[in-house]
Amino acid sequence: MKYQLSQHAATRMRERKIQTAWLEQAIADPQRTEPDPDDPGMEHRLAAIAQRDYRVLRIVCDPRQNPLKIVTLHFDRGMKGKL
After folding, report:
1. 72: buried, middle or exposed (CB in 10 Å: 19+, 13-18, 0-12)?
2. Segments of 7-82 assigned E as strands
3. What is the pLDDT of residues 53-64, one digit of tens each?
4. The domain spanning residue 64 has which CATH number?
5. The whole model's pTM is what?
6. Which domain holds residue 44?
7. Which of the residues 41, 64, 70, 79 could staple to 9 if both were Cys, CB 3.0 to 4.6 A apart?
């Protein structure tokens, strides 16, 4: 799947040591998707990452853009064990 990282997302990946493979896993095959509460056109894709003790990676993206625009991403502490 083609995607483009925002500058913010690229910075967060480096700071949070999020691997590209994890990002690609979560956007291509999310275990859950949710609309953004503030902008229904945006989407949250969530996936548990085995290599990080099944912490849930949350990716906020804009599926209206081609390629898919990754706005930000982080490990969602409140979601651990819920997927």
Report:
1. middle
2. 32-35, 43-49, 55-62, 68-76
3. 999 999 999 999
4. 3.30.2310
5. 0.93
6. 3-79
7. 70
